[in-house]
Amino acid sequence: MADHEGARLFREAWIAGVHAHFPGEPKPGYVAPWEDTPVWEREAAGAVYEQVRQFLDVSGGHAARLSREQKGRFVATCWTAQMFKHFVDPKPGYVADWAELPDWQKETDSDIFAAVEKALS
Description:
Layout: H1 3-21, H2 39-58, H3 68-86, H4 103-120
């Protein structure tokens, strides 16, 4: 899969997760189409997609046996690293620890891992 395709898959999984799990009406930026997604966010999405892909690869596919929560935590941690890469002083919500994330975001991060797994199988 080309780099941009992995990033788009990540973004599409994010949007689907937001629609499925966000309580009420999400902020427009949460569900903006790929074409309206900022460059930094596209790059971050591609980087996290690649980290999940590599994680599955180096585990010989056994990372698929992680719990749903463990998969979501991995995505969240990778995303946090990207926020520190792209922002000198990121908003606290961008770099919140797993326990501090809202449930809808935890579910969405878990969905993203599952979407990458499915695309690679």
